Amino acid sequence: MPTLYLGIDGLASVISANGVGTDMLQRPQPTVDFPTTDAPGQSGPGELVDFVLGFLLRQYLVILPLVLLGGMAGVILLVVIPRTYAAQAKIFIGTQKAQFIQQQSLFAEAPIDNAQMDSQIQIVQSPAILESVVQKLKLADDPEFARPSIGLIGRVSQVLAKATPGFTTAEPEADATGTAIATLANRLTVNRVGVSFLIEIGVTSGSPEKSAQIANALGAAYIDDQQQVKRQANQAASVWLQERLQQLSERTAAADRAVLEFKRQNNIVSADGKRIDEQNLIDLNTRLVAARTHTSDVFARLTRIESIIRTWTPNATLDASIADELTNPILTTLRQQYLDLSRKESEYSARYGRDHNAVINIRHKLRELRNSAFDELRRIAAAFKSDYAIANQTQAELEKQLNQVISESQAANKAQGTLRELESRHATYHSLYDSFLQRYTGAIQQESFPLSEGRLVSLASAQETKVKPKPPLVFAVSLMGGIALGVGVGLLRDLRDRVFRTSTQVQSLLQIPCISVVPLLKTSAASHLRRGRLPAKTSEGKTIARDATVLWKAVDSPRSSFAESIRAIRLATRCYGTAPNSQVIGFTSALPNEGKSTIAGAVAQVTAQAGRRVIVVDCDLRIRSLSRRLAPDATVGIIDVISGVRSLEEAVWRDSATNLFFLPTVTKGLLYSSEVLEAEPTKRFIDSLRASFDYVIVDLPPLVPIIDARAAAHLVDCMVLVIEWGRTNIDVVRHALDTIPTLRQAVIGAVLNKTNMNRLPQYEVHLASMYRNGYYAKYGLE
Questions:
Q1: Model-level pTM?
Q2: Same domain as 514, residue 415
Q3: Which residues does residue 720 pair with via DSSP β-bridges, in sequence order?
Q4: Helix 471-496 and helix 45-80, axial crossing angle in degrees, nearest 10
């Protein structure tokens, strides 16, 4: 141990002299587009089906027991819950009555609406109806209703209450009738049938006959209650109407006497319902209107004739309007003669000339006709003047008579207002008396024939009752409850399963490619590899030890799926390498025990077996897990070589079968391991290995517990991140990569290690065909 500390001190001095190398090798990384997790509601039907199938495959061991437990609970409920029977009776609620009943009805029949139907439903459940049924059927003496079972929960509550200190049973015993009413109310259901006027009354009981009997009794009690209510209302209305009729009869007689007395005192005489003076006034008014109309007509005609006479000239032409307006036969004849002579005068003038004797004679006759017409007009005007004077005199006489009649009727009109008031009061009392008399007669008649608004249209029958609880329903509900509980527990387990299960998760959540899925090898599967450990030292030098672990599975079983997955890692490192003959590849993980050392060793073996010169360097300076497996007896390690205490040939170990070289570490619990890996001498040492070997496989410490892997990032060309399937937490890996962005650039891909290939299809249903053993068997893979 002193030698070790001296070597470390000497290395520290070298580090302080040369400085610390912090720049890692930067290489352009390939651009890869990774699928992102779909938002809820954006996945297609196929993805939804795959999710459901995968969920059922993953959680069926949880869902199935809970479903069976729910079914057993349903069976227990069916055994424990007592059997009850239900019976239904239907009542029709309506106002359709016979015509003679509607005419005699004392109350107006309003149409039934939803509010009235709800009110009738409440009446059926009212305590008054229930009490009448309890008394009629003597349910207070029935143990089922007077002393109902309190059930399992009630019994448990009683036991707990009795076990409580200070518990007393001082409660008074409940009334049997009240208990029966309350029990009946709990077992009663009253519902409206759809939107019809039917009300269904349902009652449950331990006996089908009893449930039917109670349902029918409730319907009959409701109808009897409605009839009793109407009968009482009609009786009360009849008494009130009788008293009111007596009052109206007295008031009507008094009003009649008052009208007759007033007419006698004011000497008011009427015929056919009208006063005589009013009839005279109407007649005179009609005659006066006719006289004024006649006077206006005569005056209009006189004015027209006088205007014609004033405008008359010797040469005036007989206008057709004169004869038409005056309707005088003489003027009409004269005008006709005038027209005939005018036509002849025109013909003769055209034939013989205007100075011919015949034409001149005709002109003289035309002049004589005009003079005759003018004389007739003056005679008519004189006659109209006489008629106009007579009409004026007649109109004045009628106006005088009308004024006299009006003055005479004014005295009678003063009393007319009082008379109308008396007559109106008399008519009102008489109308009220007739109306109340008719209603009173109808009420008396309806008392002998009461009619309820409801009738029992469907009687409950014991043969048609339904058994409760219903076994199919209870069993279905219990199974659905078990399924719901199982699905809920399964979903909760899925939500809490925050570990890597598929390569798609690796790519979408970490944004790095998943370069390989390494299957899990159980101890039984690797037992055929037991060959016993080879000696640590031979005459040829230090030989790498072999044991029964999966570390040697890739070279000992090259046709296995494990070996194929390791070759996939080797191929990925070659594709991302910068030079074919010098490449340093680091293997790390987020947490310890994820299998990074095994993967590093297996990749190195496969690469060396392919003819490449490969060395594995154990840079996990604190926990030398790979060194304990490959070189358990090593005494010289990487620290000795870097510090210059020993040469590389003295520290390196070799496997003769694969020509694989291994540089172990022999230190334990080195506190300054990150400074050692970060130092420039370590960088120069790795560069020397790069020149001597085709590939340098570096086993790095995990990322999360310590910072050694971050410090050693500048030593490697690229890194491979090993993730244990079903164990490594997603958030832990994302945190480890997000903390150092430059480290993410160095990681070329991730390896999903220790994968349970049998369960993998449960998480990737759409890729289930990829994991069929038959496909691999065709190529000789085990």
A1: 0.52
A2: no
A3: 587, 749
A4: 130
